[in-house]
Amino acid sequence: MTIDLDRHLAEAATSVAAVGDLDALRVLDGELLGKSSVVTEARRGLGALEPDERKDAGRRINEVRTELERLLADRRATLEADARTEILESERLDLTELDGGRRLGHRHVVTQTWERLEDLFVGMGYTVAEGPEIEDEWHNFGALNFPPGHPARDMYDTLYVDHGEPGSTLLRTHTSPVQIRVMETVEPPIYSIMPGRVFRSDTADATHMPVFHQIEGLVVDRDITFGDLAGTLEAFTKAYFGGDFTSRLRPSYFPFTEPSAEFDIQRPDGTWLELAGCGMVHPNVLQAAGIDPENWSGFAFGFGLDRLALMRHGIDDLRELFRNDLRFLGQF
Ligand code: PHE
Question: How many Å lie between the centroid of ligand 1 and the Cα of residue 176?
């Protein structure tokens, strides 16, 4: 036999060890074990040998073939493990070093706005109150002077909850029901704000979300007038936006306030932006909450909180706030 199988095996081991990737290994596999490989050729030569030589030579060829297979399999396993490690490394996300620098998380831009508003009104002597997000029909509508079937109910695309009588339980469509809850439990004078999450069956677009935030304000005291409302909102405008902003009130309609108004602010560039509904608390509402309208009067306002956040930071699409993309939120 002219083929030196030992030498072939030694050379093959060197070539296998030198292969750097799985594609090259597949090629080498063909060369070492395929149709025109040394071992295949050696087996072909067996026919020319004497029967007793043939047996030993055949065993040796099989040993060499098995050894080559083992070398190739070992190398394949190593290369596959390396490839996996490389993928894991490249997809690794170091949460302590996002964007290359060590960063702590911070409050969401809506929460920041919420907290600034609370600070501002607390500084003006208001307390902060909260109420449930799942409300009954009475607090969301009835006590707010929307009789059953009143067309103004259609202004709110209400999401009802399958609980109790049909239509009796809902996701609050505004923070105004918290006014009722505060008046039911606190004796006037009342100076409160009520921030919270509200729900309407709206399709998300640049200016609407089915879940958004409002901040309600309620004042009930003796001899409160529309002038107090206008003065409070103007003071708020200067404090929140700065001295170069002003505000105005435009006539509007809400069942729970009379008279009612829209509150707009004017930006330094002269453009107006609608921010809130407001008005004098309707006597029916005071009465529904157990307060005597002969002795007390009050005003209320309700801001869109998300809109205030957008405005402050010059963001033009409400949906950006809730995509939870850290590259976006990290800017604020
Ligand atoms: N609740 C009203 C709304 O969501 C806003 C509002 C609050 C209006 C308080 C007047 C007084 O549309």
Answer: 6
CA of 145 to the centre of ligand 1 (A): 12
CA of residue 115 to ligand 1 center, whole Å: 20
Evaluate: CB of 298 within 6 angstroms of ligand 1: no
Does residue 174 have its Cβ closer than 6 Å to ligand 1? yes
Instruction: Please tell me the residue having the least CA distance from ligand 1 atom 3.
Output: 174
- Residue 144 Cα: closest atom of ligand 1: 1
Site to substitute for ligand 1 among 145, 211, 236, 256, most atoms within 8 A of C-beta = 256
- Verify cis geometry, omega within 30 degrees of 0, for the bond prior to 189: yes
Residue 83 and residue 230 in one domain:
no
pLDDT tens digits, 14-29: 999 999 999 999 999 9
**What are the DSSP calls for 299-330, one per residue?**
EEEEEEHHHHHHHHHT---GGGGGS--HHHHT
Q: Output the CA–CA distances (angstroms, integers) from residue 126 to 130, 166, 218, 220, in the order listed.
A: 13, 37, 9, 11
Q: How far is the CA of 282 from the centre of ligand 1 (A)?
A: 12
How would you classify the pairing of strands 190-199 and 127-128?
parallel
> Does position 103 have pLDDT exceeding 70, yes or no?
no
Question: Measured in angstroms, how far is the CA atom of residue 187 from the centroid of ligand 1?
Answer: 22
How many structural domains comprise the chain? 2
Is 100 within a domain? no
Q: Which range marks the domain in which residue 212 is found?
A: 109-329
**Do residues 170 and 312 both lie within one domain?**
yes
**Dist CA 291 CA 287 (whole Å):** 5
Model pTM?
Answer: 0.70
Q: Give the nearest ligand 1 atom to 217 CA.
A: 9
Nearest 5°: the CA angle 86, 92, 95 is 160
- Residue 253, domain member (yes or no): yes
DSSP designation for 208: B
pLDDT beyond 90 at 152? no
Element (H, E) at 196: strand 190-199
Same domain as 283, residue 137: yes
Contact 303, 276 (CB under 8 A): yes
